[in-house]
# Entry
Amino acid sequence: MNKLLAASAAALALTVAGCGGSGDAKSSSSGSNTLEQAVKYAQCMRENGVTNFPDPDKNGRFVIAAGGSNRNSPQFKKAQQACESQEPPGMKDDSKDVAKAQTEWLKFAQCMRKNGIQDFPDPQDGRLKVPRDRINVNSPQFKKAMTACRDVANVGGGSGNGNG
# Structure
């Protein structure tokens, strides 16, 4: 499973992978450089109007929570452009990975709907966003659908408890 799918599967229902994942650190110095660059990027994004842009994790990767920054908003795109020079390595998704993730997440979404989660959305641009204002990820029905669908299309891994 490629990095995009793995990151998305781990984040299902609770968060949505945002901005791609950063490259794996090859050494401690490259890892710290990536983290430093990711911190600067996050600061730049906030300074350019994306006030709820998250800090990176200890590996320099970003996860944008459901209901967080809208990657398609004009403000986000403007900030992204302004901060492009500070963008850490591995931020841009490979178009092949995005296309594969789109196909795989679509199968997963169809399975969720088939298993009783009628409002479960289709993915967009290889990412799956679960609208938690409309879908209760802690409901028994959602958990049952997750269990039924977690092995569909190489995505949706996790414990079946709605936590990823």
